[in-house]
Amino acid sequence: IDVCTHNVVVVQYRDEGYLVLDGLLSPEECDALRDRMSEITEQMDVPEHCRTQFSTDHDEQLKKQGNADYFITSGDKIRFFFEKGVFDDKGEFIVPKEHSLNKIGHALHAYEPLFKAVTHSPKVQSLVKKLGLIYPVILQSMYIFKVQFICPALTPHQDATFLYTQPLGRVIGVWIALEDATLENGCLWFIPGSHNDGITRQMVRTPKGTFPLTDFIGREKIHDDKLFIPVPVKKGGAVLIHGEVVHRSAANTSDASRHVYTFHIMESQNTIWSPENWLQPTEELPFPSLYT
């Protein structure tokens, strides 16, 4: 039975702020995405500011500014974001390339055919229509590696902190497990119902010509650890994530990776996308419609 045909999709998502869907992708589709990412990783051109070992405060500041600029201009590109300590002092890898990356983003959905096909798939479109979105657009996409013994925990946060809209509640994350996501390798944890409490922190661009390039308004609340519920997902399964639901993941302490493809969708009808968000549409890549 296709769960997308039942009201449970809408009710559970709206009540709890997240929803697990088994079998959104087949094992073969998951493997195809992973194989393509292996090719991208093998062929990647590592930016110089990532490779360089800095030794002075001034140089360290330049490195941080280079990293920040590389991030803030990545919305319409495919760029590489590395874990700490994966290069030696000559800028060479000290771990295998495929173990060096935290994520690749943020426009896989636009430029990589396999990822584009998954993002615009009939299953995803049907699901989003079930949730009542009229003019959904794709904001960004990422491939997250969650490498064993390297990738740290992801602290509690709300996606709306980084993808702010007026009104709130217009952003949905689609988080697809390309391998089993387990308690041991860093599955997601949620506070059910926390999407009803608004947000207390917003990431904003700073005025042009200043550094750092982004800052935060407000602070993340202190969350009671007992309220978090683990959400393991089988390979090919997906989690729908409300933009305001509080979630986190633990470090990967297993001997297995936890590869994920994730993207964010926004209902654009009667929605204002904050001009202060780090991510902005460009002439090269306006936010594309999900339904086309």
From TrEMBL:
GO terms for molecular function: metal ion binding. SUPFAM superfamilies: Clavaminate synthase-like. Keywords: Iron, Metal-binding. It holds the Pfam family PhyH. Coiled coil: none annotated. It comes from the Eukaryota. InterPro entries: Phytyl_CoA_dOase-like. Its cofactor is Fe cation. Signal peptide: none annotated. 2-oxoglutarate(2OG)-dependent dioxygenase that catalyzes the conversion of 2-oxoglutarate to succinate and CO(2) in an iron-dependent manner. However, does not couple 2OG turnover to the hydroxylation of acyl-coenzyme A derivatives, implying that it is not directly involved in phytanoyl coenzyme-A metabolism. Does not show detectable activity towards fatty acid CoA thioesters. Belongs to the PhyH family. PHYHD1 subfamily. PANTHER family: PHYTANOYL-COA DIOXYGENASE DOMAIN CONTAINING 1 (PTHR20883), PHYTANOYL-COA DIOXYGENASE DOMAIN-CONTAINING PROTEIN 1 (PTHR20883:SF15). This is Phytanoyl-CoA dioxygenase domain-containing protein 1. It comes from Cyprinus carpio carpio. The lineage of its organism: Eukaryota, Metazoa, Chordata, Craniata, Vertebrata.
